[in-house]
Predict the structure of Dinitrogenase iron-molybdenum cofactor biosynthesis protein.
Amino acid sequence: MLIAIPVIENKGEDSIISEHFGHAPYFAFIKVNENKIEEIKIEKNPYEEHGPGMIPEYIHKNGAKVLIVRGIGARAISFFEQYGIKVIRGASGSIKEIVTSFISGHIKDMEYKVKEKFHEH
């Protein structure tokens, strides 16, 4: 399974999740196999200044089936749902902490209000 997480830095499994998925400087793509992290690939966000639907298409083309975020808007969620990508909101911490929590079944989708400044686009 491939999981996508927007992150603020490129520090491997220690990279911290971004406050808002669309304005993250990087996206981490984490390959999980047999309940273990097999590979972490971190890419610069090519759509940091994005239009609606561009990031969901990018995540889909990379093969992710799950997107774990801190904050995300309802419209963006609908784009991800069209691609069959499950969105889990309200996460915090590093890639390692988040994915470990996901694998163990402890991470739950929780609404998280992003700061309004992110919705000026």
